[in-house]
Design goal:
Rossmann fold, 6-stranded parallel beta sheet, 7 helices, globular
C-alpha cells in the first residue's frame, strides 16, 4: 500500500519522443477529467527536445503547484521523465511502456526529426541530448509503492522484460499483447484512474 492516500488536485501528463499534447492517451485522459473530475487541474506541456530543458520545465511547473497534490503519468520517454519525477518528488506516478535506457535507444535518432502529430514541424535531436539523458538516469525508486507501471508484452519498440525489471517493488500491470502506443488504452484507463485515486 502506498503512503500517499489523498486524491491529487493536479495531474501532469508527459508525452513520448516525437509526440505532443495531442497524444491520443493524453487527449483521452484529459477528456475523462473534463467529464468526471473537472476539479483536477490538467497540465500536459509540449516538452522540448533537450532532456535537461524538459526536466527544468517539469520541475518548475511542479514547484508552482501545491506541494503533495501532484500525480504524474508518462508514456515512453515521458515514462522515463515521470520516473525521474518520482525519484525527485513524492507523488503518485503511472508509467506506460516507459523508456528504460533512452540514452542507449535514442542515440540512433540523432539528427532532424519530425513530430508525429504535425510532420511539418521539425526539431533537431542533438548529440549532447544523449549525455543529458545519461545524466538523468538513476537506479532505484525511493517509494516504489507509489508507482504503477503499465507494460505491454507486445511493445514493438521496447523490451517488456526490461521495463518490468526496471521497477522492482512497484505495482505492475502487465498487458498481454497490445503495442508500444497501448492502442487499447481505454481498456486500462480505469486501472490507471483507480491507482491515482481519481475514481473508485
Amino acid at each position: 500500500m502506498s503512503s500517499i492516500a489523498a486524491a491529487p488536485s493536479h495531474l501532469l501528463y508527459l508525452h513520448g519522443f516525437r509526440s505532443s499534447p495531442q497524444s491520443f492517451k493524453a487527449r483521452r485522459l484529459q477528456a475523462w477529467l473534463a467529464a468526471h473530475r473537472p476539479d483536477v487541474h490538467w497540465w500536459c506541456p509540449q516538452l522540448p527536445p533537450s532532456p535537461q530543458a524538459a526536466m527544468a520545465l517539469i520541475d518548475a511547473g511542479l514547484a508552482d503547484g501545491p506541494v503533495g497534490q501532484w500525480a504524474v503519468c508518462g508514456s515512453s520517454l515521458g515514462g522515463f521523465y515521470a520516473t525521474v519525477v518520482a525519484q525527485r518528488h513524492r507523488c503518485r506516478t503511472v508509467v506506460i511502456n516507459p523508456a528504460v535506457d533512452p540514452a542507449r535507444d535514442l542515440r540512433a535518432h540523432i539528427g532532424e526529426q519530425t513530430h508525429w502529430h504535425d510532420p511539418a514541424e521539425r526539431f533537431f535531436f542533438r548529440p549532447e541530448f544523449v549525455d543529458e539523458l545519461t545524466a538523468l538516469t538513476a537506479p532505484g525508486l525511493p517509494n516504489p509503492a507509489d508507482l504503477l507501471a503499465i507494460i505491454a508484452t507486445g511493445d514493438e519498440l521496447l523490451d517488456w522484460r526490461e521495463m518490468r525489471d526496471r521497477y522492482p517493488g512497484a505495482h505492475l500491470h502487465i498487458v498481454e499483447g497490445s503495442d508500444h502506443a497501448l492502442s487499447d488504452f481505454d481498456h486500462h484507463l480505469p486501472h490507471l484512474l483507480r491507482f491515482l485515486h481519481l475514481c473508485d
